[in-house]
């Protein structure tokens, strides 16, 4: 299966389930999670079912196109299902069958994996999905986003497209993946890997990036005050990318690092709150649609999410307890 | 007629390490609830796989047993007036129990006489008891981490998919999250995906086995081990033992299916620990050894599904490992390009703990402390090795390999030190300073590693306590309990004699620049005292495993500054306690202590004056005591605490006569005080071994 067919097959599968297929978010992000289609929409009581490919930039992983596994930019196929359907695992396994991974022929397994993003104030529990020992998908049930509890809980499926394609095409190097017949990944992206790695690791201008970080941060805060959470979130993302570039360049010391992460997280939180306020103001319009994907979980114990959000006062996000310090070598 | 109960929670894949503790919780809550409700039952068995947690209770009675209880009411005085007529209070009490006043009785308690009634409590029917018990059990599992799902408030390790609650052939209605109970279970996710209606609880295990699930953890583990052994044999090797990995893999699969794969033999020149770690930590593969115990270029992966064509999935397993080994080789080659010594400076950029500074600062502190310990323990000859190895001991933390595999810390330090031409003793000490890594692990074999390990851990303990982050409850993020136990094991194992409190003082002195701004909470003990108290707690727990806790406390009460001596005192005393002649000795000592405690505080200090003795028994006791004191001193200096105890025991007749014949609390003040001073000295003699007053006499007699 060509790389392109892999994408098209996954898109078709999730579109058939009732997801909307959006296009990649058009800003630099480190992961599909950071696109507003995931980060913001995971918040609040409204349903949301979406699938998209997200080119994800990881400046520190840049290897000048010389490493067969690591890339400055890779592609994630991101699916968000909210609320997580009761049969989400089955729907996922069905997508694997469609791309040619039959669980009777391969050892498909859900192996414990906890996910946490300190820059987004987000965490969840789930698995990495193994296919014959290789991790092909991150499967996460969001618990918190921007410091807010996720109610209802969204399921996030992140397929590593390059890994899956390498597996399906049985090639060792990502650059040997065939994109379509006769065109390899190398032809499409190798030059990009070389140049972007050179830029991120050697050529970027830390002074400029520090200045940009400050400016983006300020603009984000200003837009929050103007009640414009969506453009504000764009600036939070720009902040995050500027931080990633500085980090890859080794321009941020260990002690400063935690502080920069906190600055990004604080902005992400403000955006999350602004977004929730905006949705509340609009009357949570998507709750009025009949939009569902998969089997819907019944409410038998406790109260439904719509009631939960009536009890949330929007200006104090729930602070998640600081991650416990773990000493190595102790 | 007795029926069986089956409870099964079906869930999406539960983390392997959660399964056994969760089953213990389920079993405990169910058993407690049944006991509380006086519901008789037979054997309780648990079953668990990544997709299910189950409990089977055999032969549950139809109902709880009836019981007659005595209920106390108001006091007899309040319940009946002078004429013996029932008052309002008595009437109300009777009414509350739906009895007539005539049915009330009287019961005498230590507090006086009360009105009472005998009330019969009927046992509840089994289904009502169990419905509540199951609800409490499934909601009462204490997972290390749990999550919400869908649109429910309930938390569980992973989303719940089904719930079976069967009493005989009857379904009991219970709700967990978004799931209602029934009789439907599921087999292996891929091999038997269709729902299965269970007829009776007793069919559970066999039904699942037909559906390709080995639900009994012990049986699944045995099956795994058997298949692994066979696979290893067919691959021409033997399995490298790893009980932890077997346990983990057992709970990663419902039906273990091993496959043997191989890797490029050229990788065998990597340190074996690296290869094993590469296979184990990410992939959970088992390593294979040849007859000489050397690694073979083979592995065993355990699949959850017996796939149609093992070669196809093997292609995947081998490819993942190939990529990992290529990474490992890359790190190993790259790391060796920089000598370990050149990396030390980089530790200055790695934070150990915010308030206590970087790893470089920590290394500098514990290097100095290790040097101090070398002097204190009489190992000054090791000073040069200690100095060099301590300097390099953490440098591997900033290598690529340890960044990828933190478990290889120490191992890589040793390898890179050797590669860089450091003396073997230094390389070994770098590795050994991490030993023991757990309760079962080996101790360092040489002094240098042992001393550095002690210093590193003492620095952690003292530093973390000093900034007020001592472990509390289950939270021990710096693993200080383990560190403290390791210190104790090393000191005892290697027989180091030194003052623990002096070492703690030295560690705190070295930490002092970091502690300038630390403010202690009001009423909080000084760090030194907290650390020593922490040691006391660990010693109590450790030694309490093999000795009576009151005896351990008696020994610790008179000090543990010299850990080796404390251990010897315990070993001398422990066998004596429980001996028939020990109890009178302890009793005699208690008399001494009681008098000293009651009267001693009003008595000015000073020596006993033998000239002031008037009675024969006290003169005799004093002579015996003076001789014994010298001998006890000699014995103690020679670490012969059993001998010291014999000397002390020899005093008993004289002590007894003294108490029989001599009036300690004499009218004459001088006389009285002199006797109390004398008893204080006798008490102090006993105290050289243990505080006998802590030993429980009733137990001692048994």
UniProtKB/TrEMBL annotation, chain A:
InterPro entries tied to this protein: aa-tRNA-synth_II/BPL/LPL (IPR045864), Gly-tRNA-synth_heterodimer (IPR006194), Gly-tRNA_ligase_asu (IPR002310)
Gene3D superfamilies, A to Z: Bira Bifunctional Protein, Domain 2, Class II aaRS and biotin synthetases, domain 2
Keywords, ordered alphabetically: Aminoacyl-tRNA synthetase, ATP-binding, Cytoplasm, Ligase, Nucleotide-binding, Protein biosynthesis
PROSITE patterns: AA_TRNA_LIGASE_II_GLYAB
GO molecular function annotations of the record: glycine-tRNA ligase activity
Subcellular localization(s) per the UniProt record: Cytoplasm
EC number: 6.1.1.14
Catalysed transformations (reactions): tRNA(Gly) + glycine + ATP = glycyl-tRNA(Gly) + AMP + diphosphate
Pfam family, one: tRNA-synt_2e
Record has Amino-acid biosynthesis as a keyword: no
Family of this protein: Belongs to the class-II aminoacyl-tRNA synthetase family.
PANTHER family: GLYCINE--TRNA LIGASE, CHLOROPLASTIC_MITOCHONDRIAL 2, GLYCYL-TRNA SYNTHETASE
Subunit and partners: Tetramer of two alpha and two beta subunits.
HAMAP family reported in the protein's UniProt record: Gly_tRNA_synth_alpha
Protein's name according to its UniProt entry: Glycine--tRNA ligase alpha subunit
Origin species: Corallococcus praedator
Gene: glyQ
TrEMBL record, chain B:
Domain DALR anticodon binding: residue ranges: 587-688
A Pfam family reported for this protein in Swiss-Prot or TrEMBL: DALR_1
Protein's UniProt keywords contain Manganese: no
InterPro entries, A to Z: DALR_anticod-bd (IPR008909), Gly-tRNA-synth_bsu (IPR015944), Gly-tRNA-synth_heterodimer (IPR006194)
Keywords of this entry: Aminoacyl-tRNA synthetase, ATP-binding, Cytoplasm, Ligase, Nucleotide-binding, Protein biosynthesis
Localization terms from the record: Cytoplasm
Quaternary structure, from the entry: Tetramer of two alpha and two beta subunits.
Name of the protein described by the UniProt record: Glycine--tRNA ligase beta subunit
Species name: Corallococcus praedator
Lineage: Bacteria, Pseudomonadati, Myxococcota, Myxococcia, Myxococcales
């Amino acid at each position: 299966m060509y790389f392109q067919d892999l994408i098209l097959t996954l898109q078709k599968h999730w579109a058939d389930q009732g997801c909307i297929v959006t296009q990649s978010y058009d800003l630099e992000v480190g992961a599909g999670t950071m696109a507003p289609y995931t980060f913001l929409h995971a918040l609040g009581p409204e349903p949301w079912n979406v699938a998209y490919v997200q080119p994800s930039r990881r400046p520190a992983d840049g290897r000048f196109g010389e490493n067969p596994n690591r890339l400055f930019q890779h592609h994630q196929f991101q699916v968000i299902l909210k609320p997580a359907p009761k049969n989400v695992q089955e729907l996922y396994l069905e997508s694997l069958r469609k791309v040619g991974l039959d669980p009777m022929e391969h050892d498909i397994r859900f192996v414990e994996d906890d996910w946490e993003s300190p820059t987004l104030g987000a965490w969840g529990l789930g698995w990495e999905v193994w296919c014959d020992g290789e991790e092909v998908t991150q499967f996460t049930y969001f618990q918190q986003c921007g410091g807010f509890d996720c109610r209802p809980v969204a399921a996030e499926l992140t397929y590593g497209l390059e890994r899956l394609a390498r597996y399906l095409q049985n090639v060792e190097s990502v650059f040997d993946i065939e994109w379509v017949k006769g065109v390899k990944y190398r032809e499409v992206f190798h030059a990009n890997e070389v140049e972007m790695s050179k830029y991120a690791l050697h050529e970027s201008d830390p002074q400029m990036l520090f200045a940009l970080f400050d400016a983006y941060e300020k603009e984000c805060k200003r837009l929050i005050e103007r009640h414009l959470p969506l453009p504000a979130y764009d600036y939070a993302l720009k902040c995050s990318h500027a931080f990633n570039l500085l980090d890859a360049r080794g321009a941020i010391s260990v002690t400063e690092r935690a502080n920069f992460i906190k600055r990004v997280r604080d902005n992400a939180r403000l955006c999350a709150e602004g977004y929730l306020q905006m949705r509340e103001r609009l009357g949570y319009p998507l709750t009025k649609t009949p939009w569902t994907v998969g089997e819907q979980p019944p409410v038998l114990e406790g109260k439904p999410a719509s009631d939960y959000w009536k009890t949330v006062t929007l200006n104090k996000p729930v602070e998640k307890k600081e991650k416990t310090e773990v000493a190595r070598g102790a | 007629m007795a029926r069986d109960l089956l409870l099964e929670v079906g869930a999406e894949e539960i983390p392997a390490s959660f399964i056994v503790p969760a089953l213990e919780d389920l079993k405990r809550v169910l058993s407690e609830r049944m006991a509380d409700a006086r519901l008789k039952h037979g054997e309780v068995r648990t079953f668990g796989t990544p997709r299910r947690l189950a409990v089977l209770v055999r032969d549950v009675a139809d109902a709880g047993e009836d019981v007659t209880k005595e209920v106390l009411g108001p006091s007899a005085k309040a319940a009946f007036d002078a004429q013996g007529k029932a008052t309002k209070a008595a009437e109300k009490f009777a009414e509350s129990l739906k009895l007539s006043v005539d049915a009330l009785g009287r019961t005498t308690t230590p507090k006086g006489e009360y009105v009472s009634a005998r009330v019969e409590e009927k046992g509840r029917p089994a289904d009502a008891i169990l419905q509540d018990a199951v609800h409490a059990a499934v909601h009462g599992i204490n997972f290390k981490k749990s999550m919400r799902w869908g649109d429910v408030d309930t938390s569980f390790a992973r989303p719940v998919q089904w719930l079976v609650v069967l009493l005989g052939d009857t379904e009991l209605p219970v709700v967990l999250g978004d799931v209602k109970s029934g009789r439907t279970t599921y087999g292996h996710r891929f091999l038997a995906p269709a729902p299965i209606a269970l007829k009776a609880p007793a069919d559970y295990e066999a039904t699942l086995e037909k559906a390709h699930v080995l639900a009994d953890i012990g049986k699944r583990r045995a099956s795994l081990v058997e298949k692994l052994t066979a696979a290893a044999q067919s691959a021409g090797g033997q399995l490298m033992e790893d009980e932890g990995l077997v346990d983990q893999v057992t709970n990663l699969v419902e039906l273990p299916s091993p496959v043997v794969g191989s890797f490029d033999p050229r990788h065998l020149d990597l340190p074996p620990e690296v290869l094993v770690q590469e296979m184990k930590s990410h992939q959970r593969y088992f390593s294979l050894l040849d007859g000489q115990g050397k690694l073979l270029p083979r592995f065993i992966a355990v699949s959850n599904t017996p796939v149609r064509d093992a070669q196809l999935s093997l292609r995947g397993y081998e490819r993942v490992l190939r990529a990992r080994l290529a990474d490992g080789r890359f790190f190993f080659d790259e790391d060796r390009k920089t000598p370990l010594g050149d990396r030390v400076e980089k530790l200055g950029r790695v934070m150990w703990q915010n308030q206590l500074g970087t790893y470089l600062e920590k290394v500098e502190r514990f290097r100095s402390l290790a040097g101090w310990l070398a002097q204190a323990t009489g190992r000054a000859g090791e000073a040069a090795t200690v100095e060099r190895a301590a300097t390099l001991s953490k440098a591997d933390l900033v290598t690529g390999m340890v960044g990828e595999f933190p478990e290889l810390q120490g191992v890589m330090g040793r390898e890179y030190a050797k590669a860089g031409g450091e003396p073997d003793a230094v390389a070994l000490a770098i590795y050994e300073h991490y030993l023991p890594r757990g309760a079962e692990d080996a101790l360092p074999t040489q002094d240098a590693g042992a001393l550095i390990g002690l210093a590193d851990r003492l620095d952690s303990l003292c530093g973390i306590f000093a900034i007020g982050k001592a472990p509390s409850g289950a939270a021990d993020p710096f693993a200080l309990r383990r560190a403290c136990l390791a210190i104790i094991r090393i000191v005892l194992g290697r027989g180091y004699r030194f003052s623990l409190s002096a070492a703690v003082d030295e560690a705190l002195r070295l930490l002092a620049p970091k502690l300038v701004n630390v403010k202690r909470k009001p009423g909080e003990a000084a760090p030194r005292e907290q650390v020593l108290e922490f040691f006391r707690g660990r010693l109590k727990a450790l030694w309490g495993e093999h000795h009576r806790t009151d005896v351990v406390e008696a020994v610790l009460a008179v000090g543990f500054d010299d850990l080796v001596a404390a251990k010897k005192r315990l070993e001398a005393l422990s066998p004596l306690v429980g001996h028939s002649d020990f109890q009178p000795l302890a009793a005699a000592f208690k008399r001494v202590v009681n008098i000293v405690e009651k009267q001693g505080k009003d008595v000015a200090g000073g020596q006993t004056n033998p000239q002031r003795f008037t009675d024969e028994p006290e003169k005799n006791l004093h002579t015996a005591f003076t001789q014994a004191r010298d001998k006890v001193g000699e014995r103690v200096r020679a670490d012969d605490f059993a001998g010291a105890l014999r000397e002390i025991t020899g005093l008993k007749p004289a002590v007894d006569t003294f108490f029989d014949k001599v009036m300690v609390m004499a009218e004459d003040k001088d006389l009285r005080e002199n006797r109390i001073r004398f008893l204080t000295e006798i008490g102090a003699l006993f105290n050289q071994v243990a505080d006998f007053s802590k030993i429980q006499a009733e137990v001692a007699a048994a």
